Amino acid sequence: MLTDTFKTTKSEEIFAAAQKLMPGGVSSPVRAFKSVGGQPIVFDRVKGAYIWDVDDNQYIDYVGTWGPAICGHSHPDVITALREALDKGTSFGAPCQLENVLAEMVIAAVPSIEMVRFVNSGTEACMAVLRLMRAFTNREKIIKFEGCYHGHADMFLVKAGSGVATLGLPDSPGVPKAATASTLTAPYNDLQAVQKLFEEHPDQIAGVILEPVVGNAGFIPPEAGFLAGLREITREQGALLIFDEVMTGFRIAYGGAQAKYGITPDLTTLGKVIGGGLPVGAYGGRQEIMSMIAPAGPVYQAGTLSGNPLAMTAGIKTLELLRRPGSYEQLDQITGKLINGLLAVAKATGHEVCGGHLSGMFGMFFALGPVHNYEDAKQADAAKFAKFHRGMLEQGVYLAPSQFEAGFTSLAHTDADIEKTLAAAKVVLESL
Ligand SMILES: *Cc1c(COP(=O)(O)O)cnc(C)c1O
Questions:
Q1: Residues designated as active site
Q2: Which of 96, 252, 293, 400 is 20 to 30 Å apart from 424, CA to CA?
Q3: Which residues in this protein are found as N6-(pyridoxal phosphate)lysine (predicted)?
Q4: Residues 74-84: tens digit of each pLDDT
């Protein structure tokens, strides 16, 4: 191990100061390394597939700012476009043509989207879509899946545990019972459970929202027939199907999971990649539904900075790079090499592992597998993951600091990066 040369003195100093200034020292919880132990690394700069921390350690990055850095961090085309946009100002609070450009790109790419509304985060997109689905169906209840994350709005913070899940009890203090009383939950990949909820609550369920490929409980792909089954059930029941593609949109395919699996939901939420590293979220769907949004219709939703020219610019440039032929084949090839290599090294060093990938999204559990849902994911060896995470960090590889997070590659990751990562994994896994 490189432990002798691995110094994080400045990171520690800055994080100690941050803890006095901000709750937990961070602006978003998972960054705090709570589930893997140790102190978070404080970044100084990012470029391509790499990050450098304030102590000047360099890492190969598999977080990619949680997905947006799909073309590689600070892609020169994105930076140049942002510099030009910056000269025209940072925010208009009025229509700008760049919104049309990104909207056209999103509509052309994502099968379910005929009209789109831009917001500033994935959380906002999911909140808005919830209001819209309730307004459109004139029903209140929704179904979400255990372990799926749809941002931090009250209605989605329902614990993914059996008893509490059934009661619809909130997952966080401060969330009123009333806010989650209409949130029903089912295990992922379990069509029967969904069918049962519809039978128990006839004509009351507005829709089903899910991550079409789960990334927020670790990487869990849908089983054959699951998405199609949900499409069928929701249609039969007069409910809407919502794909939360904040993570998977423009990530596992240019048109997202819905293009990859050929299942078209009624509404879709987007975020992460479409902002190219700036704060953007979006939701969209059929014109008939989207026309209910103010000012076209009565469903209120607004945003001071929504459609911001810098954010639109980063999104447009990122999608332009992604839609070049071969992008997703390249992501698939490099990510396949990574995950298959990791699984092989882990098995060769005597560890039980399972995992997989879809284009530039991947995951590995320290478990025999297969992992079908959150319950399965929770059986994975979190203590071993924590040690693996720490070891990889010391070897210059930055992984998401939780086993319940998917990993991401970018167009900037090279075969050499993957080989270095696998060599590091061998050293770490042999030591566990
Ligand atoms: C990240 C994420 C969100 C929340 O997006 P923010 O921009 O962090 O608010 C919602 N849904 C899914 C599937 C996500 O991965």
A1: 149, 244, 272
A2: 252
A3: 272
A4: 999 999 999 99
